[in-house]
Amino acid sequence: MAIINVLRGLDASDIVAADPFDLYHDAGDEARAIPDLVKVSLGTDKRREDGDPEPVPGERRGWWGDTFAEEHGGTGPDDGIGSKLWLLFRTQRTAANINLAVQYARDALAWMTTKGVAAGIEVSAVDGQGDVTLEIVIVRDADPPIVLRYADFWEGLANG
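Predicted structure:
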């Protein structure tokens, strides 16, 4: 439950101590937590909004807790946890869709700057011969940036 609290309303100083196999870490070691926070942000399906592509008719997905946030006056689309990368499931690997994937990743990670976990987020994609590599750079004020690369990114989207 602590990871959801970090994503929902806490900042970097609120990341609590845990054993090395949990998704959250000691507040003095945010660098270890950041890759896990990125994985949760990208790997969790954000609710599909009206007007978004509909890869599976009628399916909205999303974290079940977002339903209650909406019912109780959530502040809008930025409230939801996760990414809309799932909307690209089984789409063609085109420049437009790759750009959309980069935008979905940026949107999913934007909370990190708002909550003070990162000073900035840079997301890019390299369309190589075999597949697309998604690169995420987490910019931090006083510390070196954290660079995360997800090779075979498009293959993962294509196969769900």
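Summary: Residues 2-158 form one domain.
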